[in-house]
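Example 3.2
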Amino acid sequence: MKSLRWRLTLWFAVSLLVLVTVLAVSGLWHLDHELRQEKWERTHPAQPGWVLHGSFTEKEVRDILGELIKIWAVVGVPLVGLALLSAHLLARKSTRPVRELNEQLARLGASTLAECVEVPDADPEIGELVRHLNELLARLEASFSHLRDYTAQVAHELRTPLQLVRLRIESHAAAMDPELAEELQEELLRLSNYVETALTIARAEQGRLETHPEAVPLKAFLEDTLEPFTRLAAVENRRLLWSCPPEAAVWADRSILKQILFNLLANALKHGDGDILFRVRPRSQGVAVLVGNRLPAQASGAKQGLGIGLRLVRALAQQLDQTRVTFRRNRFFWVRLQLPTLPASSRALLNPLSRTLT
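Structure, written as tokens:
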């Protein structure tokens, strides 16, 4: 049993049963000794001077002991169940502060480290643990804040020099070797994209991106968003295989959602191999978007640049309410994006529109 709750349950129940068993066996042994080896003596009420000596027969002893064991068995079986139930309830109550602490920690992310965890009515030991965790979260929040500020400052400082260098190269391109000018322009464009991505990540992780959530019918949205990636994949003799139920719709910011999908598909084209799978699956708690592709054999144990783009995806996903992103990597690289469904009011407005379009 790996669960702490069940270990506590078994420990309490076994301890209680061992104690009761020891008491019952010792009582049974003492009664057996008294019935078999000790003789009873009584005085006659009418004749106080008379003393009557006697003892139980072997059959009487077995009958008495057997009846006692039957009674203990009848009473003991419910007691065993009651002991297990009470032990389980006690263990559940004892581990409730730990469960509450785990639930609060699971909800924390890079943008919510400033939130303190609280476990009311906790034991002093749990309270001490909560205090240390809050101090650790405060130090992590300070470190993340300094890192985000530094990233934003560095990216901002690099943006202007890169633009100036690019303009200088464009103005003197006629006097330069064409291949060299083109190569420099490509490198500057790549560096500029990295700087813009770093700035976007810093703004997103600081919560400074403005969002405008709305109802997004995914079928039409994906047809427009995925079309250029379908053509880019075809150039490399690859396919973008995607499917989406016509009724699927989410509540999200269109521009942020498009940027997330652009980064995921760009990573799949750049670092993946073979066909790209894109699936939309409605779920009870939202809409799941799965993006996956096979990794090259030489990249199975390395990261191969899957860093800044996925960090941007995480940062952007944090800006959308009730949106989660998870990654799984083995021979395939899978990204699962969980998006919220529409509020009831927006769903009522979208359904007549969908029927009109169809």
